[in-house]
Design brief:
The protein is an alpha/beta fold and 327 residues long. The chain has 13 helices and 10 strands. The chain has 2 domains: 106 residues, 3-Layer(aba) Sandwich (Rossmann fold), CATH 3.40.50.10860; 161 residues, NAD(P)-binding Rossmann-like Domain (Rossmann fold, 3-Layer(aba) Sandwich). 47% of the residues lie in helices and 13% in strands. Strands 7-6-5-8-9-10 form a 6-stranded parallel β-sheet, sandwiched between helices. Strands 1, 2, 3 and 4 form a 4-stranded parallel β-sheet that branches. Helix 1 packs across helix 13, helix 4 crosses helix 5 and helix 12 packs across helix 13. The longest helix is centred in the last third of the chain and has 25 residues. Bound molecules: nicotinamide-adenine-dinucleotide (NAD). Its EC number is 1.4.1.23, 1.4.1.9.
Length: 327
């Protein structure tokens, strides 16, 4: 748990192979801090936490041992008495969350059939769409998607509904994915299929990374042709100083942890007093557009990077939460 200043710390449970316990711990701490800033900037009454279940490289877990690990994890979450709420993440599934819920009620994002908010990906896609519009408005004066071009990398759970929404809004979409099976989805959308390297340097209005993180670095940024980068992928910057490199090159970067908060905003809607309602959740996700506009405008006015402006807002909101809990 990194912070409970704004509310219970919420973050997914990662089931992953690590070289040693120290690497697993470091990952949990790094990811939990990221959740603090993501939820704070989204204005959610949540703190930042993350769970890690460590397996060993090359270790094949039997179904029974995997179940035991999940139940042990559930017992651990129960011991924290609600100050940490777990959810799905890399290496865990909705079915795994149902198993963990046998031991603790502090599980969010269960399947809709089990009373949860279900798959967050379409909500994440909606938040990224609003972020792209906000970045277009900041850069060109108009949020309009019609007639714009977008190169989207990663046609997965988030990328596919996002590409669908972009084409529906009249944008020309280029798509890249390492999985050739995705080509059929791209064709069905009328999107042009390109290689990932081509997408990275395409002359488009927006580059939209929706696969893995770390794709913006000292090599890729100088080669970018798109004036805007806005996508769902987590941790797009290889390091924080790449934010300065993007700004110096005149590329407007929509901070990833602001743009991709739609999933957590949807999960947070489970905690609303009236219970979960998908329409209300979608309305809250659309507010990402307002937050992104504010961050990009603040950054431009103060002459700082969008990352610095987003972090300043996140830190302000955590401090407000801490003051409210102590008073
Ligand atoms: N699912 C969510 O609600 C959510 C929320 C917040 C952030 N994110 C982030 O958004 C990104 C996408 O998430 P997702 O749930 O859609 O994942 P996903 O696994 O469903 O989709 C990722 C897609 O990217 C492709 N891909 C992987 N490596 C690639 C590469 N090097 N080049 C091109 N394509 C590549 C995969 O084949 C896959 O189709 C991730 O970084 C994730 O952490 C997702």
């Amino acid at each position: 748990m990194h912070s409970t200043a704004r509310g219970p710390s919420l973050g997914g449970c990662r089931f992953w192979a690590y070289a040693d316990a120290r690497a697993a711990m470091r990952d949990a701490l790094r990811l939990s801090e990221g959740m603090t800033w993501k939820s704070a900037v989204a204005g959610l009454p949540l703190g930042g936490g993350k769970g890690v279940i460590m397996s060993h490289p090359g270790e094949a877990l039997s179904a029974a041992r995997r179940r035991d690990a999940l139940l042990d994890f559930g017992d651990t979450v129960a011991l924290l008495g609600g100050s940490y709420v777990t959810a799905e993440d890399v290496g865990t599934s909705t079915a795994d969350m149902t198993t963990i819920a046998e031991r603790t009620p502090h599980v969010a994002g269960l399947a809709a059939a089990d009373g949860g908010s279900g798959d967050p990906s379409p909500f994440t896609a909606l938040g990224v769409l609003c972020s792209i519009e906000a970045a277009l408005e900041q850069h060109t004066g108009s949020p309009r998607l019609g007639g714009r071009s977008v190169a989207l990398i990663g046609l997965g759970h988030v990328g596919l509904p996002l590409a669908r929404a972009l084409t529906a809004a009249g944008a020309e979409v280029l798509v890249a994915d390492i999985d050739p099976a995705r080509q059929a989805d791209a064709a069905a959308l009328g999107a042009r299929w390109v290689r990932a390297e081509e997408a990275m340097t395409a002359q488009v209005d927006v580059l939209c990374p929706c696969a893995l993180g770390g794709i913006l670095d000292h090599e890729s940024v100088p080669a970018l042709q798109a004036p805007i980068v806005a996508g769902a992928a987590n941790n797009q910057l290889a390091s924080a100083e790449v934010a300065g490199l993007l700004t110096a090159r005149g590329v407007l970067w929509a901070p990833d942890f602001v743009a991709n908060a739609g999933g957590i905003i949807n999960i947070a809607a489970e905690f609303e007093p009236q219970g979960y309602d998908p329409d209300r959740a979608a309305a809250r996700v659309r507010e990402i557009g307002t937050t992104m506009r504010m961050i990009l405008a603040d950054a431009a006015a103060a002459g700082v990077t969008p990352l610095a402006a987003a972090m300043a807002l996140a830190r302000r909101r955590v401090a407000e939460g801490a003051r409210a809990t102590s008073s």
